[in-house]
Amino acid sequence: MSQPPCLICSAPSNFAHFGVNSCRSCADFFKRSVLAERIFTCRQGNGKCLITHRDRHNCRGCRFEKCKQIGMKLTDQKTTKLQPLNAPAQSNEKILARVCREYLASVERRKMNEYTLRPTSLHRHVKVNHIQEDLMLCSWSYLIDCIKMFAGEYIRFATDAFPEFAALSLDDQRLMLNNFATRLWSVESQFGTYRIFGSHDGPYFMASLATCFDSRNFKFFTEEENPASCEEIARMTKHYSEKGKTLLGPILMKSKFTDTEYAIIFGLSIWQIDLNQHLPEHLVAMSETIRRNVIEDLKKYYQEELSLDNYSVRLGNLITFEHTIQECTNLFREELQMFNLAGMMNGDIPFLQTVIQIPL
Q: Record's CDD domains (predicted)?
């Protein structure tokens, strides 16, 4: 069965957003425009620009008007979805439901914040040709800005999703952030590549929620920071990206995780202990307990929601993926060390060393 078209730009769409059938790109555009209270005008001045998935970015005025004309409304979305996020977690609420809800909220916040980081220079504002997603190529400075912003949001997600984390002291929360920050980034970049591009076989690899690397153009990632060593850095970046794809691409193709499983892997990654971090015993014990509770709830999900009598293979694939992510995290740290030797780090070293514990 063919996918129904987006009513704004005619791109294929699987879901309704804000009350109408639309692609994610148009839905994100509408939400950003409403929340920022933006005012657009038609580029041609007649309000009759043709909006298709190939040229939907050409006239924001006509695109926004079309969103409103077909009935998009943000108010319903805000009251039905965002309002409960501020409510305290109930003691009888299932762990999976809370983690999934807070993860979706975290993605929405970070994506909105990420759009504000986009470069204004046309030279650095390079769109990626994708039917449904509003993607740009990622540069080094943009990636670092995203990681800095994500670090605070990772803490917020952990606090909202796990009452145990919220009860920790600030010092313990910082130690835990050191433990999981790079791992959460690795989870999202690997999953994002598979979910958006369908596999790890193509030239693109997700760098953040709204940007990606292009293996045919790694110079774009490096050129604004240190042109002299651009060729070598581009070679290193491609090398490490390909290693990550080789490790996790086959697992993702085989497992085909659901959205719930994806959110749970993200949540479990907070409590996966990196032995190199040497965390205090009370944090290790807490992590082990929470992981057991999450996995028990996950088993119920397999039985009750997916109707699986034998879920051992599926659970095994999930745990395998989670532990393989740690290998990718180590690769990322190794890659950053190489970037440092190539002279790319400059003023970012204190943040990378202190906040996410990259040994430089």
A: NR_DBD_HNF4A
